[in-house]
Design a protein that fits this description.
3 copies of one chain form a homotrimer. By secondary structure, chain A is mainly α. Chain A is built from 20 helices and 11 strands. Chain A is globular and about 75 Å long. Chains in contact: A-B, A-C, B-C.
Chain lengths: 487, 487, 487
């Protein structure tokens, strides 16, 4: 049979993920030790999860000693507010910038923030936080609820109903919190203190509203935007989790934004699902071919990617739109990406807060210009080219271009049908988003159009065809035509 | 590079699942050896699967020698009917309680039961079987088909159709067996003997009806209820399988009971999918933080959970409703959990076999009281608290409370709309579950209401929003209103 | 605690997949070395993926030296066109049969084919290619687009729309390429040469049309049919990928062909998902019980399966219909499997290019006869019997038989309803596939009927019940009846 040593060598060779996590030991500060003493009892899962983290095993000094490409922090010298020679523990993170934190409270002898915010993480990761602060994600609340049109859409879709000789609908903050805002983020506020029962006796803690929430655009009690924990799951903050597609799959789901669903059904997703155990999801930089042989969302959209010689193929970014030239998510049409992550400021030629008019005239002053579009296309193309021929990549992009045109044509036809239905008095556009036939129209651009376009570029044909795809968009168009003609 | 020894230590440290299964050898009885001799040839997969099992490597004596928390059997002394010093093999299980087994037959020289039932498993696992026998799962057939209202629903939904100047529908046992009863369980009966061709020649075996089936409420030929194999897949009976979410995902699926789908999209599911290779799914007791850092269904709903000091956070239960205070599954509304697992006995104030009337008046005498509700909420909260702050948990529960109110309001409005439609003669409530518009109403409470409520407490926002969520429930309500007004 | 050595032995024992890949070294030809020199820079991912492959580590000589059951190539002597003593690299595959390749071009000093086709793979794998060439998969384009009826269906479902006093629809090749043909395959043609920018400077390459594509029936520039890469993902060509269900899950998806979805929710899928890390997906032959304890798609449909004694349970086949007796995919009804993989030749008694008339009269001369049906049923049954009793298997098959009858009854009723709707002038059958009510009818047989039948035999009840199952088929039938009666 096989020799033991040979097998061991093979084992070690084939299991890079198991060894990539080897870290130095780091001393735990006496303050964090005090936290752990109680929390090991009251919240043992948090403590144990943190113990598996890189934070628990690394000092800032050690983190700074890495070469530039391997560094996992983006400061170049030790920060003033955290000790450089201890592990990054409870105390180190939960006490930062206390003066800005409305959620700061006296917890036994220490002043502690309940929520660690991007502003706090910026102590060691300032570049990532800065990049993120310009992204659409950071503005995810205002981009939705701060947009007067989308606000109506949200309220119509989540309105609590009663029936009294007709349907009466009322706005519900709670319904919004468990739906749209669970991903987009809530505005977390502090409403005094509240007494809670714990295993250590009753204690007073800040009474948080619109909480819990880990949405990408969360408004925090220190005024900052976002939640790093949306992707970097507490308290291991494991880069392995952030890089695997399941993280994106918390929100990027069918029917509106089916990126994760399409990925799973694509060749990329197939290879990932089949071979992920042999990939190294913790390596920084992330070496294409060596650490993985199929991309995940993070590979193409934000990670630092190098080839086996260490040449950079793509730099890290936490502004997740930076490698994208068009915005496929249709409102109702595809346009160039917005210049600014805060899209609630956009006003189109018809005065609507949308990047295109219903006639598909783009609000160009708010959108990136062709030169920037080309640069980003080139950047993304470089990543594709690491595994695909230029012809393959160019044709794929060309296929997308044509798909955008074709889908937008159907969306225009559907919008014209909707206008005709309103005109004929068959629906009431006082609220354009509540009635059943209006929902049929909305599904065209909010579900099916997005699905087809994403499926085109990601090569997941089911979502272009029968699952919220061409089948559905053409069926719905016929149903709208029937509605108009019949009544 | 890395040193071999260092890597090996890391390997061992990080792969608890691989070493947790180390077991003593156990001698195989001569009777089981006889079974294996042929079955290794005729059904090699069964034998090989069993060989990987704990049953194949443990005697009752060894199992009894474990300390109380680590014990995997719930007897305290050796049973009279099984040898205590042999592995638990074919013969040991398939010959128990033969006198009660209508499926017992002479198989070569032995009297063998085709089906091993919970009553047989109770030989070594009596506490689990006793607990299970009180659960809604054990009564899953009668809770469905034994309920006259649901019987009509099942028959309408699975009726085989012909068209002769109108749709004619007939009841099909087969259609029920492959749909509802595949999960709920069939009544397995014995219809004499039948000759079957095998590799060892023709033999006579009991002719089972409504078989194969592994539904949770299966009625067995010995009069017992349930199938342990529903979750403990034969013949490895691996606790690893039962504890992973895929087992629950055989039945708890969208659109009616989307627990598994929501889990996958939640933060819990994300962490599980990303890191399950590093968890130990075989350890008993199951240590939070140490054996796993994200819960699966089993963690919260039934496993024996301890902290790293060995303190019990939650005791094991096989009555899967024991940690639940409300029944989110809407019929049509949410009520407290029923007192008795057999819910077919419930009669509400309107004489319907439902836990609430159509006006949402609860049948309180059949439902647990507020005190028991509080106790269960506390118990579940303790599990959540192992990883989350009290404020986080309380707010999550409060969010659920409000969601229940809000969803039930829409369900009441929908039910009132349906009543108005029946009243107006636009649908015929002789059979309230067959027509298309009635299905629209049913989807409100059987699909969308359940989905929203589960998604609220499990934090999987897609199923609260666009995927059978608020989007769908409000759209359907408008469609029902249109139906009523148009005609 | 555990002893190091004990743990290591357990590790090795439990991780067959890690050691199964141990291969000899194979020298790389100087031509391939030349390819790699540049491509390591321009497409590092391809080179790195290939380096993980068996091709990179095996010579034909070594491959030939295996015993018959273990051989992974189907030639018995070294081919004339490839060196037998080098690894199978870029040059060895991309230069074969150059004279037939319209996509051959002068690439630096070599004549290289862009696409490696089944005809090229046949150099070493002739039996697999021959088998495949008779399968429905090989003819997947003509079976769809070459069938005049399905062509209309495809064009109606993917037609790009404009609205000008009515919906105008135009046929789009691009829309077909990203939907149906992404799985079925495109006809890849060469339209001269095109200059592309690369990291090594501008070069000229063949300008491929309807590319990229890896569909199962792709028409290649050398006249061959199919793409081995559809399942054997380039450039690792890992059998592990082909044998895992994710590969089939690229195309066999709900709502039309939900094999993968149903598998995931079945007991088989549950065990696979729970325990795949302990299975050996690379072993040839594939030993049931030893290499795996739950089947994947490949196990039942095409792999070479043996028992632990090495007895063959099922021979390998790359004609994926060879173990199937009925064709569950309904057009609209279930019939025996076609004799010929090219189904576009079938004409039924009503002159339609369908295996059954709308009244469900089978076109028997094109379909396998009862004797062949029985042989295939027996063959598939043998595989099932490796893990299940004869009674279990027979009853499952019987359940399927009844389900086929019942579903076909509903499909007949639905088709009669559609005919009545056309007759009444409520829809226009000039194009029988475009209008909304026609789509309702199509969903009956293209979605729900298929779903129920597959779910019946694969024991994934959700897809027989509420998810495109009996619930949906009966609801839609009522909706069609309402449509007929109302107007």
């Amino acid at each position: 049979m096989r020799s033991l040593i040979h097998s061991l060598i093979v084992l070690i060779f084939l299991t890079p993920t198991l060894t990539a996590g080897v870290l130095e030991e780091a001393p735990i500060s006496k303050e964090t030790k005090a936290c752990i003493m109680c929390h090991q009892k009251v919240t043992p899962g948090i403590v144990a999860d943190w113990e598996t983290s890189r934070h628990a095993k690394t000092t800032i000094q050690q983190a700074l000693s890495q070469d530039e490409l391997s560094k996992r922090i983006s400061i170049s010298q030790t920060p003033a507010t955290v000790s450089a020679d201890v592990a990054i523990g409870c105390y180190e993170c939960h006490t930062l910038n206390a003066e800005n934190h409305a959620d700061n409270f006296k917890h036994y002898s220490k002043n502690v923030n309940v929520i660690v915010t991007p502003k706090d993480c910026a102590t060691c990761h300032p570049v990532e936080v800065e990049e993120y602060s310009h992204s659409k994600k950071a503005y995810a609340i205002d981009n939705l609820i701060g947009n007067p049109l989308f606000k109506i859409l949200v309220e119509a879709s989540t309105g609590v109903m009663e029936y009294q000789n007709g349907l009466i609908q009322r706005v519900s903050k709670n319904a919004q919190n468990i739906t749209c805002l669970k991903c987009h983020g809530t505005e977390v506020t502090v409403d005094g203190m509240i007494e809670v029962e714990t295993d250590m006796g009753n204690i007073e803690v800040p009474n948080l509203r619109n909480w819990p929430n880990q949405g990408v655009g969360r408004k925090n009690p220190d005024g900052s935007l976002g939640s790093c924990a949306a992707c970097h799951a507490r308290h291991s903050f494991d880069i392995e989790i952030a890089r695997k597609p399941y993280t994106c799959g918390q929100c990027h789901l069918e029917p509106d934004v089916p990126g994760f669903n399409i990925y799973k059904e694509s060749k990329h997703g197939n290879i990932f699902s089949s071979k992920f155990m042999k990939f190294d999801f913790a390596a920084v930089p992330w070496t294409i071919g060596e650490d993985f042989t199929a991309p995940t969302c993070a590979t193409c959209h934000n990670s630092l990617i190098v080839n086996s010689k260490g040449d950079v193929i793509a730099n890290r970014t936490h502004d997740f739109g930076q490698r994208l030239w068009v915005r496929l998510f249709g409102l109702p049409y595809t346009t160039p990406q917005p210049i600014d992550g805060n899209t609630s400021k956009i006003i189109n030629a018809d005065g609507q807060p949308l990047p295109a008019t219903f006639a598909n005239v783009h609000a160009n002053e708010y959108l990136i210009d062709p030169k920037i579009m080309d640069e980003r296309k080139q950047l993304m193309g470089n990543i594709c080219n690491a595994c695909h021929s230029t012809n393959w990549v160019n044709n794929s992009f060309h296929e997308l271009d044509r798909t955008i045109e074709e889908v937008d044509s159907v969306l225009l036809a559907s919008t014209q049908l909707m206008a005709a239905i309103w005109e004929a008095g068959l629906a009431d556009n006082t609220n354009p988003f509540d009635e059943a036939i209006e929902r049929t129209w909305i599904e065209q651009w909010l579900f099916f159009g997005n699905s087809i376009k994403l499926a085109s570029i990601m090569a997941g044909p089911d979502y272009a065809a029968f699952k919220n795809g061409w089948w559905d968009i053409t069926k719905n168009a016929h149903a709208m035509k029937d509605f108009l003609n019949k009544k």
